[in-house]
């Protein structure tokens, strides 16, 4: 469960937000502050996961406070509390790292809705961090033993991926062959650190499919299109499940894990209103990163 810190110069607002958070079961309020300077100290002392920051405060504004927090290593989620409607200022806030807004005057329903999404994002980040730890555990093997273990993992990669494809509703899609080739290549190299550029992954998948070390742009583009179509099918499948049963375990697990919440909601609305297929927004890189980490977790468990 996420821990919250509230920074606002109005004591009534602080009390109201704390009451909503704790009585709605959204998390625990571990600290409050009346201004930005005090807020920086309290956040760092309490190691809060989520910070609610008032935009306009007497000593310094919310964006200045956020900047100071980042400079001192804060990596949690940030929610801005504001009456400001100016689009340019709101855009500046998003660019500064603010992920959500709560507008004044405070509305309980809005606070619960916004902070429940923030908590979902926090829990997702925790889950991904747990999956990433498998990377370091995989690195324990060495020498011939590591080579043999890697070979075994490569053979079982497709087996581990199959139930994931089934749950995402994409088993049998042409792009799954390309995705499997990418995943096997990553495991073979023992990929760690920064995730490779997408174009590099597309080129490797094209080379694997064609059986040749060199590929042209047309082949690489074909891989990209197949994977994009497959990811969109997965998004549509999960959105359809969410419309029917928002509490479905597959939807609850895979939708926020593989896709941004806003993209899932947009696809659900598109399906619900029987709109034509528009330009669906998806993050291919996030999708492949999450699948790689889930696959590693499955390989190690197996």
From TrEMBL:
This protein is called what?
Response regulator
Q: Which domain of life is it from?
A: Bacteria
